[in-house]
Amino acid sequence: MRNGRVLVSHGATAVVQEDNEAQLIRCLARRRTGRAVCGDLVRFSLPQPSEGVIEEILPRRNTLSRTNYRGQARPLAANIDSLMIVLAPEPTPDAELIDRYLVLAHSLALDPVLLLNKIDLLDDAAAAAAALLGDWQNLGIPVHPLSAQDGAGLAALQQRLRGQTAILLGQSGVGKSSLINALIPDLPARTQALSETSGQGRHTTTETTLYPLATGGAMMDSPGIRILRLAHLTPDDLEAGFSEFEPFIPECRFRNCRHLDETGCAVAAAVESGQISPRRLASYRALLRERDALQP
Ligand SMILES: Nc1nc2c(ncn2[C@@H]2O[C@H](COP(=O)(O)OP(=O)(O)OP(=O)(O)O)[C@@H](O)[C@H]2O)c(=O)[nH]1
Ligand SMILES: [Mg+2]
Ligand SMILES: [Zn+2]
After folding, report:
1. In whole angstroms, what is the distance from residue 106 CA to residue 128 CA?
2. Domain made up of 63-221: CATH architecture
């Protein structure tokens, strides 16, 4: 039996890299083991040289999932140490989507980092960054300014990654793949190897993909998505993802207040008095209402 890590998974097939080997192997999942996801650690056999069989998926330390339109959790990646949310001056940040990534990070007990990419586009970088990051900077979420294009901030990012598996998340066009490209000198060759092994044609970021880094650790590229449903999380998870609500919650009139439209809601009052951002409360409410709609 061999040990390896799943780089990318397409349905029942996965591209696996055996530990301490460069070569990639296409493996089929068994019905018994279920489908593997990007980042899974697996044990596999090699009945023929060109195709392996996943015999066991090792227990996941964590699983990053999103909810599909039918309300079911769909795993995207596993065994993640660091969740990096990429945003940029362009495209205009989708603030609600970023709030959702932050909730997802919190639900997995991961400390998120915001990667502010494309700072080469900013004239007065500090002022522009503060304007873009307003709510999140106030919440104390660490921000790394970078430019995949001119290389600013990349060394610091690499330093931070050492030994860790990080996933890059963010809307389409913010530069996730460009960052991977800037960190991995032989990316074209690797992409070629991935598509040859998977047999799925040209490799694009339609699936979350893990790239081991020469400096240790690994980076996962994920496809930009427009909608991140989180209806598989509990209402408590959703609420806890908005840590600035916490001091006010005990002051709500009803102990089971959901901060939607209840009378005597202290969270809503904190928005009125300017202590909580109205935008953040709206993000929370949208998540809770979506959950109500998908989990009857
Ligand atoms: N000016 C500037 N442009 C950048 C930078 N990084 C990426 N871009 C450009 O932004 C565009 C989108 O970059 P991608 O890396 O494809 O974005 P992505 O986040 O992977 O997008 P999806 O795969 O669709 O989710 C490309 O035209 C890049 O050249 C940067 O640091 N500065
Ligand atoms: Mg991409
Ligand atoms: Zn309340």
Report:
1. 27
2. 3-Layer(aba) Sandwich (3.40)
At the fourth CATH level, which superfamily is domain 235-294?
Probable gtpase engc; domain 3 (1.10.40.50)
pTM over 0.85: yes
pLDDT tens, 67-96? Answer: 999 999 999 999 999 999 999 999 999 999
Rounded to an integer, the average pLDDT of 176-194 is 90
Whole-number Å distance between alpha carbons of 39 and 58: 11
Domain boundaries along the sequence of the chain: 2-57, 63-221, 235-294
148 ligand 1 Cβ < 6 A: yes
Percent of the chain at pLDDT > 90 equals 76
Task: Decide if 208 contacts 10 (C-beta within 8 A).
Answer: no
What is the length of the chain?
A: 296
Any atom of ligand 1 within 6 Å of the Cβ of 175: yes
Is residue 223 in contact with ligand 1, taking CB distance under 6 Å? yes
- C-alpha 132 to ligand 3 mean position (Å): 28
Ligand whose nearest atom lies closest to the CA of 270? 3
Tokens 């919440």 sit on residue: 139
The protein residues having their C-beta less than 5 angstroms from ligand 2 (an ion) are: 176-177, 205
Pocket test for ligand 1, best of 117, 120, 178, 220 (most atoms within 8 A of CB): 178
- Amino acid identity, residue 248? F
